[in-house]
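Supplementary Note 2. Why include the ligand at all?

Several targets in our set were suspected to adopt different conformations when bound, so apo predictions alone were not considered sufficient. For every target with a known small-molecule partner we therefore ran a joint prediction. The input for DP6 is given below.
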Amino acid sequence: MIAARACANIALVKYWGKRDAALNLPAAGSLSLTLAALVTETSVGFDPALAHDVLVLDGASAPADRVTPFLDLVRAQARVTTRARVVSRNEFPTASGLASSASGFAALALAASRAAGLELDARELSILARRGSGSAARSIYGGFVRMHAGTRADGSDAYAEPIESALADTVRMVIAIVGGGAPKTHGSRDAMEHTAATSPFYSSWIAQVPADLAAAEAALARGDLKSLGEITEANALAMHASAIAARPPVIYWQPATLAALAAVRELRARGRTAWATMDAGPHVKVLTTAAEANEVAHALAAVHGVTDTIVSAAGGPVT
Ligand code: DP6
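The joint prediction is reproduced in token form.
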């Protein structure tokens, strides 16, 4: 078995829509922060005795229906036909309900390619991980990461790469877990497709992304966390606005999500560094500094309906 570890990432400029579903090509670029606190470790071994791929996820046997098509890509590249055993474990704080497909497919891309005898470079790994999950392409790298939408039909220019920034050392993300009987949310894959197909605001959302990416990259280049935070929060709200306007709507927010957003605005009114983003679930992730992270976590923990908080520094690349 070959083992790999990858950190999850949270997008500051979101990926929400595809230009090609078969090759999993994003309709626009995105920009993320890789998080040290959210790690997936995955081991892969190809075994001629296996009749089909086997997945063990967090200690329990799980359906391999998203793993097998991904392993088929690795088998095709490596010219092997053997089935594999995949053992994956999320070192996420328990019951956080945080999505793990980004760290999961990034770790699987490295472990499976090595186990099959391939030596892929980081860009090739990013392209491979993208086929499993678009956000996984970004988890190949640590720190701040940009994902290119690319223009080629074969997806060879749709990969991620790291962005150097002095902010990587001082930035923190505080994750406020919103619990409490939330109904099962729509998976991001189906929900972004539904948004693209039915939301009257989808085209405005996609049209906005390049300007947000340029502004976020400029903020990273000058080490300007305030500007980065403003873009992060505005971009997340625009993404959710497009989803909320889908027909029928995709609404990920719970009452505690809005209460946490209000707490973030209140922190800012008191002069604190705090900007929020949300993904395909009710949790609120807040961009802040190492110096202010504990105060931000404390304020979010006091919000009714927030059941846990996690503070994370920037994480490293897949290993
Ligand atoms: C809201 O990467 O899960 O987290 O490519 O279909 O697997 P697929 O989608 P996925 O979508 C992530 C959506 C998001 C925003 C983001 O991470 O950029």
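Residues 128 and 174 are 30 Å apart (CA to CA). The chain has a mean pLDDT of 96. Comparable summaries for the other entries are listed in the accompanying table.
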